[in-house]
Specification:
The chain has 294 residues and is an alpha+beta fold. The protein has eight helices and 14 strands. It has one domain. Helices cover 27% and strands 32% of the residues.
């Protein structure tokens, strides 16, 4: 295990989307997520963590100590079983076939999961399945991202020049057209806030190298997440507040007030040029260093 970080961090992250759907809601026909009371757009923390995981997977190749626990089609209990077999195998190398679950066995398996899985030691995980690896509170947490002003959802009709089955083709007498709809946000600037706990990092082994990988992911993850549905997404600003100790010198919400945004013209926003992000680094309290990483 590498040396865990010893400083607390808080950060503000801005990103935008143009003619795309940054985070569809499966309970609403995959429409862009929106706060129904205010009209502001929402991107969940889970969505952002997924993109960070995918970036790490691309860069590190899903090998220890950068394996990814939460992946598509993963069978989590099998991963827990692997952890128990790795730390509790008999001296003759025979693998265990019986579920393990004593306090010591769970603790050892949990440590093995933190050592081998980047997202477990970063974001935490609940691993209390048949093969019990306990629970991990991750040192890195993100808020839901929220748009900087109410968004408009644009619905467009699209046409596919093909059908799925012969029966469908016969019904259309060979026309072979399939109509559909696509919902996008013409433009939206979003802001998310995050926290890095040095005290929780001590328990998971979250290191400086891991932290640098998180910053890199926030800067680069959209480049490796392109799709027709998401349009143009780009990081716009990342401001990191580094405290000079593990507990911190100021409340996060007070530091976040130092980073603000404002419209620079009237009318509908359609690009980042319609916004200005301000940051007063001179107002940082003693013991807090402000770092602009974008």
């Amino acid at each position: 295990m590498k040396e865990p970080i010893s400083n607390r961090y808080d950060f503000v992250f801005y990103f935008d989307v143009s003619m795309g759907n940054p985070n569809g809601d499966p309970d609403a026909g995959n429409l862009p997520r929106i706060d129904p009371e205010t009209g502001f757009g929402i991107v969940t923390d889970v969505c952002l963590k997924r993109k960070i995981r995918n970036y790490v997977d691309i860069v590190k190749g899903n090998v220890s100590p950068y394996r990814i626990y939460i992946q598509e089609r993963a069978i989590l209990n099998d991963l827990h079983k692997e952890a128990h077999e790795a730390v509790h195998a008999k001296d003759n190398g025979e693998k265990k076939t019986k579920r393990r679950g004593t306090a010591e066995e769970v603790r050892n398996a949990r440590e093995w999961m933190c050592d081998n899985y980047f997202d477990v030691r970063t974001f935490g995980a609940v691993m209390t399945l048949e093969w019990n690896c306990g629970q991990v509170r991750g040192p890195v947490q993100l808020t839901f991202a929220r748009s900087c002003e109410p968004i408009t959802t644009l619905e467009t009709t699209i046409t596919r020049m093909a059908v799925a089955t012969q029966r469908e083709a016969e019904k259309q007498q060979g026309d072979n057209r399939t109509m559909g709809r696509k919902n996008v946000v013409p433009y939206g600037l979003y802001r998310a806030e995050g926290f890095v706990s040095a005290k929780l990092a001590e328990k998971t082994g979250f290191s400086q190298e891991d932290l640098d990988l998180v910053w890199a992911a926030l800067r680069e993850m959209f480049e490796h997440d392109r799709s027709a549905a998401r349009g143009m997404m780009a990081p716009r600003k990342l401001v990191v507040f580094k405290h000079d100790n593990s507990l911190g010198r100021e409340h996060a919400h007070e530091l976040f007030k130092l980073v603000n945004h404002e419209r620079v013209n009237s009318g509908p926003a359609r690009s980042f040029a319609d916004w200005r992000i301000g940051f007063d680094s001179t107002a940082c309290p003693s013991g807090v260093e402000a770092l602009e990483m974008l």
